[in-house]
Amino acid sequence: MPIDLSISRAIDRSLKKAKELKSAKLDLRDLNIRQDCEIDIGEVVNSLVLSMDKVMNAVWNSHVRDKNRKPDIYFPCEALAEKYIARLQRYRLEHLGDVDPELEQIISQIQPFVAGDTCWWKQLKDIAAIRHERYPQIINPRVSRGVRVGAGQNLYVEHMIVSGGVVNFKGLAWDQATGRAQQVRVDLIEEMQAELSDNNQDPFDFVLMASQNVYSTAKRIGVHL
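Given the sequence above, the corresponding C-alpha cells read:
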C-alpha cells in the first residue's frame, strides 16, 4: 500500500510554508511578528511529525499481514538500538530488515542511536512534544550588520581592509557575466538572526531543513511500499 496522496500533499504544504518563512525576511524584534512566526513554526513542526507517523503506518500496512490487534503506530525515535528493535517487535516488523533491508536502513539511519546528538528527527519530535504546553519559542532576535564585497564580480585582491563598515580595497574587479572591468562593489548588509529556545538553531533554517528531510524520507520510503 503506497503512501496516501494526502500525506504527500501535507508534507508539500509544510515544505512550502517553511520556504515562505525563510524567504520572508521578517523583523523578529517585533513581538507580534515573532509570535505569529512561533505559531507558524509550531504548526509546521506538528504537521511534519504527524506525516512521519502516517508514513510509518503505511509501512506497517504494507509489511504486516495480520491486521488484528493493531498497535498504535508512530515513526520510531529511539536513542538506543535495543529500544528501536523492541519497538519494531511491538509493531510486528522485526522481519523488516530481512524482507526489505533498504527500507529498514532508511528508518534506522535517522534514529538518535545512529545520528547522535544532532539528530534532526529527535529535535523535531522534541519540539512537537511540547505542543500541549506552548508554541516553539524564538529568542534573542537581533540584527547582524556587515559588509559584502564583490557581489557578482571576480576579484583580484592585492590589499583589502574592512573596518567599521569602511572598505579599503586595492586590486581589480570584473563583472562575472560580461567580463568587463569595474569598480569593486561594496554593499552594506543586514541580517535578522534569532534562535529556537529548544535547540538554539536558527528557527527558519531548522524548519526548512526538517521539512526537506521529511520530504526526502517519505519519498525514499514510498519507493518500497
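Residues 5-140+196-222 form one domain. Try to locate this feature in the C-alpha cell string yourself.
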